[in-house]
Design a protein that fits this description.
about 150 residues; alpha+beta; 6 strands; globular
């Protein structure tokens, strides 16, 4: 597991550009929401967008939403916040179980499918926090640098 932090309260956010789209039901919808929020920030601040950083943020959003759908009982909330330095993607689901990385090979030495999403999130995000939600479930917030 990466160096995420489990906290008891919901994460705070005082970010200049915030995209609170309708809850995505597919990873593609989450990617579109992140792309829209980042491009709005770049337009509003008259700065160019780092394509690699945007690509990383899109992949993190995709992996978090996929994990919520496959392992967390579905997406219960989604939020994107963009400031001058980073993109914060928050995905909530119904499960309280922490994400885990699976070994790519089973005991018999056979390659197993899946289990790579969480390591991708941990590698691309500068910070990852797992927060217990008051009504049950969890929120995972990943901060991806924009530069």
């Amino acid at each position: 597991m990466c160096d995420e932090h489990r906290t008891d309260a919901t994460p705070e956010s005082s970010v200049a550009f915030r995209q609170a789209p309708a809850r995505p039901y597919r990873p593609a919808e989450a990617r579109r929401a992140v792309a829209r929020a980042v491009s709005e920030r770049c337009r509003a601040t008259h700065t160019s967008c780092d394509e690699q950083a945007l690509s990383d943020a899109l992949l993190v959003a995709s992996e978090l939403t996929t994990n919520a759908i496959l392992h967390g009982g579905g997406i219960t909330d989604f939020d994107v916040c963009v400031d001058e330095r980073d993109v914060r993607v928050s995905v909530s689901d119904r499960s309280t179980a922490l994400p885990v990385a699976k070994e790519p090979v089973d005991r018999q030495g056979r390659w197993r499918p899946g289990g790579r999403g969480w390591p991708i999130v941990c590698r691309l995000a500068q910070d990852v926090r797992v927060t217990d939600l008051p009504a049950g479930g969890k929120c995972i917030t990943a901060m991806v640098p924009l530069s």
